[in-house]
Protein backbone atom coordinates (compact mmCIF):
# COMPACT_ATOMS: atom_id res chain seq x y z
CA UNK A 1 0.00 0.00 0.00
CA UNK A 2 1.69 3.19 -1.20
CA UNK A 3 0.94 6.28 0.90
CA UNK A 4 2.29 9.51 -0.59
CA UNK A 5 2.83 12.72 1.33
CA UNK A 6 3.28 15.46 -1.32
CA UNK A 7 5.38 18.19 0.29
CA UNK A 8 5.94 21.82 -0.66
CA UNK A 9 7.88 24.65 1.00
CA UNK A 10 6.04 25.97 4.04
CA UNK A 11 4.01 22.86 4.90
CA UNK A 12 2.99 22.36 8.54
CA UNK A 13 4.96 19.48 10.01
CA UNK A 14 2.21 17.96 12.18
CA UNK A 15 -0.09 17.81 9.14
CA UNK A 16 2.39 15.27 7.76
CA UNK A 17 3.89 13.55 10.80
CA UNK A 18 0.60 13.02 12.66
CA UNK A 19 -1.03 11.02 9.84
CA UNK A 20 2.30 9.33 9.06
CA UNK A 21 2.52 7.91 12.58
CA UNK A 22 -0.85 6.23 12.06
CA UNK A 23 -1.01 5.30 8.38
CA UNK A 24 2.56 3.99 8.18
CA UNK A 25 1.33 1.17 10.44
CA UNK A 26 -1.08 -0.15 7.81
CA UNK A 27 -0.14 -3.67 6.63
CA UNK A 28 2.54 -3.57 3.93
CA UNK A 29 2.51 0.23 3.98
CA UNK A 30 5.09 2.12 1.93
CA UNK A 31 5.15 5.73 3.10
CA UNK A 32 6.69 8.06 0.51
CA UNK A 33 7.67 11.70 0.96
CA UNK A 34 7.68 13.48 -2.40
CA UNK A 35 7.89 16.97 -3.87
CA UNK A 36 8.07 18.65 -7.26
CA UNK A 37 11.83 18.21 -6.94
CA UNK A 38 13.37 15.60 -4.61
CA UNK A 39 15.56 16.74 -1.75
CA UNK A 40 15.11 18.62 1.53
CA UNK A 41 11.79 20.50 1.83
CA UNK A 42 11.60 23.11 4.58
CA UNK A 43 8.28 23.45 6.31
CA UNK A 44 6.80 25.99 8.70
CA UNK A 45 9.19 26.91 11.48
CA UNK A 46 12.21 25.43 9.73
CA UNK A 47 11.35 21.74 10.05
CA UNK A 48 12.91 19.92 7.10
CA UNK A 49 11.75 16.65 5.58
CA UNK A 50 13.59 14.94 2.73
CA UNK A 51 11.50 14.19 -0.32
CA UNK A 52 12.94 10.98 -1.69
CA UNK A 53 10.87 11.08 -4.88
CA UNK A 54 9.85 13.62 -7.50
CA UNK A 55 6.10 13.86 -7.88
CA UNK A 56 6.41 13.30 -11.63
CA UNK A 57 7.97 9.89 -10.98
CA UNK A 58 4.95 8.74 -8.95
CA UNK A 59 2.11 7.81 -11.27
CA UNK A 60 -0.07 5.89 -8.82
CA UNK A 61 -0.80 5.77 -5.11
CA UNK A 62 -3.25 4.06 -2.80
CA UNK A 63 -3.48 7.02 -0.43
CA UNK A 64 -2.32 10.61 -0.66
CA UNK A 65 -2.19 12.94 2.33
CA UNK A 66 -1.95 16.60 1.34
CA UNK A 67 -0.75 18.88 4.16
CA UNK A 68 -1.61 22.49 4.81
CA UNK A 69 0.60 25.29 6.06
CA UNK A 70 1.55 28.87 5.26
CA UNK A 71 3.08 27.66 1.99
CA UNK A 72 -0.38 26.72 0.74
CA UNK A 73 -0.81 30.19 -0.72
CA UNK A 74 2.12 29.64 -3.07
CA UNK A 75 1.41 25.95 -3.68
CA UNK A 76 -2.08 26.61 -5.10
CA UNK A 77 -0.32 28.49 -7.92
CA UNK A 78 2.28 25.76 -8.50
CA UNK A 79 1.02 24.28 -11.77
CA UNK A 80 3.14 21.13 -11.51
CA UNK A 81 2.02 20.37 -7.96
CA UNK A 82 -1.68 20.97 -8.65
CA UNK A 83 -1.59 19.03 -11.92
CA UNK A 84 -0.01 16.06 -10.12
CA UNK A 85 -2.80 16.07 -7.52
CA UNK A 86 -5.41 15.97 -10.25
CA UNK A 87 -3.64 13.17 -12.11
CA UNK A 88 -2.83 11.00 -9.09
CA UNK A 89 -6.40 11.20 -7.80
CA UNK A 90 -7.46 9.02 -10.75
CA UNK A 91 -5.38 6.19 -9.24
CA UNK A 92 -6.05 6.55 -5.52
CA UNK A 93 -8.29 4.58 -3.22
CA UNK A 94 -8.27 7.49 -0.78
CA UNK A 95 -7.47 11.15 -1.45
CA UNK A 96 -7.03 13.03 1.83
CA UNK A 97 -5.95 16.38 3.20
CA UNK A 98 -5.19 18.04 6.52
CA UNK A 99 -5.85 21.67 7.36
CA UNK A 100 -5.25 23.98 4.36
CA UNK A 101 -4.36 20.99 2.23
CA UNK A 102 -8.04 20.92 1.28
CA UNK A 103 -7.48 24.18 -0.61
CA UNK A 104 -4.92 22.35 -2.75
CA UNK A 105 -7.41 19.58 -3.44
CA UNK A 106 -9.86 22.32 -4.37
CA UNK A 107 -7.37 23.97 -6.70
CA UNK A 108 -7.01 20.59 -8.43
CA UNK A 109 -10.78 20.47 -8.94
CA UNK A 110 -11.28 17.55 -6.56
CA UNK A 111 -13.77 19.14 -4.16
CA UNK A 112 -16.39 20.48 -6.55
CA UNK A 113 -19.84 19.79 -5.14
CA UNK A 114 -18.47 18.16 -1.99
CA UNK A 115 -18.61 19.04 1.68
CA UNK A 116 -15.13 19.59 3.08
CA UNK A 117 -13.34 20.90 6.11
CA UNK A 118 -10.09 22.73 6.72
CA UNK A 119 -8.61 25.07 9.27
CA UNK A 120 -11.49 27.28 10.40
CA UNK A 121 -9.80 30.36 8.92
CA UNK A 122 -10.38 28.83 5.47
CA UNK A 123 -14.16 28.81 5.83
CA UNK A 124 -14.54 31.54 3.20
CA UNK A 125 -11.93 30.06 0.85
CA UNK A 126 -13.23 26.56 0.21
CA UNK A 127 -16.41 27.80 -1.55
CA UNK A 128 -14.14 29.47 -4.13
CA UNK A 129 -13.30 25.93 -5.26
CA UNK A 130 -16.91 24.76 -5.33
CA UNK A 131 -16.89 23.05 -1.94
CA UNK A 132 -19.22 23.56 1.02
CA UNK A 133 -17.30 24.24 4.22
CA UNK A 134 -18.27 22.33 7.35
CA UNK A 135 -16.83 22.67 10.85
CA UNK A 136 -16.68 18.90 11.33
CA UNK A 137 -13.27 17.61 12.39
CA UNK A 138 -13.15 14.90 9.71
CA UNK A 139 -15.33 14.72 6.60
CA UNK A 140 -15.71 11.64 4.37
CA UNK A 141 -17.13 12.28 0.90
CA UNK A 142 -16.71 9.09 -1.05
CA UNK A 143 -12.98 8.51 -1.32
CA UNK A 144 -12.16 12.13 -0.47
CA UNK A 145 -11.39 12.74 3.20
CA UNK A 146 -10.64 16.18 4.60
CA UNK A 147 -9.51 17.04 8.12
CA UNK A 148 -9.75 20.33 9.98
CA UNK A 149 -6.75 22.17 11.44
CA UNK A 150 -3.35 20.59 12.12
CA UNK A 151 -3.96 18.17 15.03
CA UNK A 152 -7.09 16.76 13.38
CA UNK A 153 -4.84 14.90 10.93
CA UNK A 154 -4.35 12.24 13.61
CA UNK A 155 -8.12 11.84 13.96
CA UNK A 156 -8.50 11.61 10.19
CA UNK A 157 -5.78 8.98 9.92
CA UNK A 158 -7.30 6.84 12.68
CA UNK A 159 -10.76 7.09 11.10
CA UNK A 160 -9.29 6.10 7.74
CA UNK A 161 -7.31 3.25 9.31
CA UNK A 162 -10.60 1.95 10.75
CA UNK A 163 -12.26 2.09 7.32
CA UNK A 164 -9.41 0.02 5.88
CA UNK A 165 -8.56 -2.42 8.68
CA UNK A 166 -11.49 -2.21 11.10
CA UNK A 167 -12.12 -0.52 14.43
CA UNK A 168 -10.11 -2.95 16.56
CA UNK A 169 -6.99 -2.48 14.45
CA UNK A 170 -7.37 1.30 14.55
CA UNK A 171 -7.91 1.24 18.31
CA UNK A 172 -4.77 -0.85 18.70
CA UNK A 173 -2.78 1.76 16.77
CA UNK A 174 -4.30 4.49 18.92
CA UNK A 175 -3.10 2.65 22.01
CA UNK A 176 0.31 2.05 20.43
CA UNK A 177 0.89 5.77 19.87
CA UNK A 178 -0.87 6.56 23.19
CA UNK A 179 -3.19 9.05 21.52
CA UNK A 180 -5.29 9.96 24.55
CA UNK A 181 -5.82 13.73 24.28
CA UNK A 182 -6.20 15.55 27.59
CA UNK A 183 -5.49 19.17 26.67
CA UNK A 184 -4.85 21.64 29.48
CA UNK A 185 -7.44 23.99 27.95
CA UNK A 186 -10.80 23.40 26.28
CA UNK A 187 -10.04 26.09 23.75
CA UNK A 188 -9.35 24.39 20.43
CA UNK A 189 -12.10 25.85 18.27
CA UNK A 190 -13.34 29.37 17.47
CA UNK A 191 -16.60 28.55 19.24
CA UNK A 192 -14.63 28.37 22.50
CA UNK A 193 -12.27 31.32 21.97
CA UNK A 194 -12.52 35.02 22.69
CA UNK A 195 -12.95 37.50 19.81
CA UNK A 196 -9.46 38.85 20.50
CA UNK A 197 -7.92 35.37 20.27
CA UNK A 198 -9.79 34.68 17.04
CA UNK A 199 -8.43 37.88 15.52
CA UNK A 200 -4.90 37.10 16.62
CA UNK A 201 -5.04 33.64 15.03
CA UNK A 202 -6.53 35.05 11.83
CA UNK A 203 -3.63 37.48 11.64
CA UNK A 204 -1.10 34.68 12.23
CA UNK A 205 -2.64 32.42 9.60
CA UNK A 206 -3.74 34.89 6.96
CA UNK A 207 -0.95 37.42 7.37
Automatic annotation (TrEMBL):
Write down the CDD domains for this protein, in alphabetical order. GATase1_PfpI_2
Q: Where is the signal peptide?
A: none
**What domain of life does the UniProt record list for this protein's source?**
Bacteria
- DJ-1/PfpI domain location is 1-161
| InterPro entries, sorted | Class_I_gatase-like (IPR029062), DJ-1/PfpI (IPR002818), INH-QAR (IPR052158)
Return the Gene3D superfamilies for the record: 3.40.50.880
Q: Name one Pfam family in it.
A: DJ-1_PfpI
UniProt xrefs under PANTHER family: ARAC-FAMILY TRANSCRIPTIONAL REGULATOR, DJ-1_PFPI DOMAIN-CONTAINING PROTEIN
Question: Under which name does UniProt file this protein?
Answer: DJ-1/PfpI family protein
Amino acid sequence: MRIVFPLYPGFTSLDVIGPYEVLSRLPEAEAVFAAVRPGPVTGEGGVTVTATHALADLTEADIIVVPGGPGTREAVSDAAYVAWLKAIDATTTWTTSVCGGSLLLGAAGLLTGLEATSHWTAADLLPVFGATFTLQRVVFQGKVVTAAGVSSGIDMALALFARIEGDDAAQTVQLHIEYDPQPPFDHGSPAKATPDQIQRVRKLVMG
